[in-house]
Amino acid sequence: MLIDARTIPRDTVLQTEVCVVGGGAAGITLAREFIGQPFRAILLESGGLSPDVQTQSLYKGQIVGLPYPSLSAFRLRYLGGCTNHWGGYSQPLDDIDFETRGWIPYSGWPFDNAHLTRFYERAQSVCQLGPYAYDPDPWERPESPRLPFSSDRVATKILQFSPPTKFGKAYQQELVQSKNVTLYLNGNLIEIETTRNAATATRIRVACLEGTQFWIAAKFFILATGGIENPRLLLVSNKVQKSGLGNQNDLVGRFFMEHPELDAATIVLSSPLQTSPRLYRRHPVDQTIIRGFLILSANCQRAEKLSSFSATLSPESKGLQALGRVRWGDRQNLLHDVRDILVDLDDIAVGAYSRLLRGFVAVRTLSVKTQTEQIPNPDSRVSLIAERDALGLNRIQLDWRMTPFDKQAIRRALVIVGQELGRAGLGRLRIDLDEDDNSWPPTLQVGHHHMGTTRMHPNPKMGVVDANCRVHGMSNLFVAGSSVFSTSGSANPTLMIVALAIRLSDHLKTILRSSGRL
Amino acid sequence: MTRRKIVAILAPCVAFHFLGALQTLCRLTTLGTAEPAIDPLTGFFARRQSAHRVGLEYLRGAPWEANRAVLIQLLYEGRTVRFLMHDRRNPGAIRRLILSQQRDDFARGRIVQLQGWILSQTEARLCALVALG
Q1: Does residue A19 contact residue A204 with C-beta atoms inside 8 Å?
Q2: Mutation for A interface: B41, B48, B49, B50, most A CBs within 10 A
Q3: Does any domain span residue A344?
Q4: Do both A480 and A407 map to the same domain?
């Protein structure tokens, strides 16, 4: 069922068993999982079926710390949320991302990656992806081999592309036709009301921009409003717990993580390729669109005490090469010089690459774009500011901060990739990243992945939610989405968001069935 | 720098490490003195100007190596017998040896960074030899 929240009479109290707030990837996944269950569920979405300037402006906030794109530009506040401009990039986190790594403070999840496999498999279908396979073996073809590195320090992993699935459009009809799930549009959560001890959420107050306000009472509430709004809604719900719900240990909003992206290096191939390495380009294999990319193996990360690293390769045009030389200063045309030396010395690679010739445009250089893990940092945070939005809620301030380790790790990872390229006779790598660990180049980009602000940890002093995504200290308030990520890995988060949402839905279904709370 | 001088530099190291080295050295000294010793090392750079530039860049960061004898000693450090036992009139053999050493550099982390480039110590030193003329 679909209802426009603006039509609900003022001060109405809607009753349900489960209330999901936020109609993005996590919220819609949860709502779909509840379809056909023997209980009622409400999915509350702030926006409508298409973008709206007024609603979108509720996202405005302040940026301090590292430069960051406008908070109201890259999040979308209508049904489907950020999947409305999702690129479809899908991959699971790696096993090592879940481990407690002694060299990375605050690392470690309450479960391992294997625990998530069955949820990932279901998430593949939700995201309209191919089989759950991210090692290169099933995707490699004679015409698209992986780069033949001679050690296991650098490996190839596969990224799958969703069509991409715009969750709002793809699943709207299912929700509309559901008998037990009701989708409310144009309603905004403005307060979570709790019992006097703030241990249980009793109901939420919903406001529409046109002025109507009403309540939703539920047995379980799930915040699924994204990595910036989730902490905001907990922090503004401060009538009982003065520091905000779940914030008794001053953790809500902290540990904001992104995936820093950098055009960080250039590879000069030992011998010109007649085509770029196909596996590393976006291409179809058995009706699934995939692309290979490079990672540091888990063993290498452990040995070198590094964080998660991934690098995509793309042919660099002559124009871009020229631009790079200008940017670089090009004192003595060292690009060409190194290439010349390489061709002189590395004739073995000519033989290796001649097998890859496919009669297309010769590729001599590849640009390397890195997407890496930002390690958890409590000083990187979102917090409330005095300025309020049209609904009277405090706006937020994002203070994104990275540590010197984050940059050192990228540079060291690139050195390792450069070493392994040379060792295998594949080419040489130039790092286009300065050595000042306390600053970031103006070309720093982000993945628009907002993670960690209600992080998961079994210890309430280390995390906001427990292993089941329940807010510590509260019996019935849960959080879904990338804000619960304990660490970010370097993988695009959507598949993980969907997998965790499915896992949470299973958890709630089990509770509702077993406790007789229906 | 003549071959005789190089042999003089390398001889103690060879004698110290390998019993059969003296015999090899004797054979080497009979090859003649006219051919400069560095030719087999730098002769396969088709683009000497490029090698020259890279070499200059390397020497800027390692001025203490701006000496042919030092560079040659460093290039063959620990590998002297292998080098000497190759037929030095066979550039292919030298080339294979250098390539092997270059890969070994990368494997063992013997790398240098020149303006961001990750290069093997061997190839950087070869370029430095060219730069020294």
Answers
A1: yes
A2: B50
A3: yes
A4: no
DSSP H or E segment with residue A113? helix A113-126
Subunit contact A338:B117, Cβ cutoff 8 A:
yes
pLDDT tens-digit readout, B37-92 = 446 667 667 778 888 988 999 999 999 999 998 988 888 775 644 555 555 566 67
Q: To the nearest whole angstrom, how far is the Cα of A29 from the nearest Cα of chain B?
A: 45
Under an 8 A CB cutoff, do B47 and A334 touch? no
Domain ranges of chain B: 3-131
Mean residue pLDDT across chain B = 68
A341 and B123 in contact by Cβ < 8 A? yes
Task: Answer yes or no: is A55 within a domain.
Answer: yes
Which residue in B45, B53, B119 is closest to A344 by CB distance? B45
By three-state DSSP, how is residue B129 classified? helix
pLDDT at A438: 87
Give residue B45's pLDDT.
Answer: 76
> Which tokens hold the place of A68?
């960051």
Task: Name the token pair of A171.
Answer: 């699943």
Nearest CB among B46, B107, B113 relative to A344 is that of B46
Confidence band (pLDDT; 50, 70, 90) for B24? very low
Residues in A touching B48 (Cβ below 8 Å) = none
Asked whether residue A276 carries a pLDDT value surpassing 70, the answer given is no
How much is the pLDDT for B40?
Answer: 66
In a domain, A99, yes or no: yes
Nearest to B118 among A150, A344, A429 (CB): A429
Residues A475 and A420 in one domain: no
Mutate to test the interface with B, among A333, A346, A419, A428 (most CBs of B within 10 A): A419
pTM of the shown model = 0.87
Structural domain span for residue A200: 1-127+167-254+452-518
A286: left (phi over 0), alpha (psi -120 to 50) or beta: left
The stretch A501-514 carries a mean pLDDT of: 96
Residue B98 CB-half CA count within 13 A: 29
ipTM: 0.83
| A167, A168, A169, A171: CA torsion to nearest 10 | 70
Of all residues in chain B, the one with the smallest CA distance to A345 is: B99
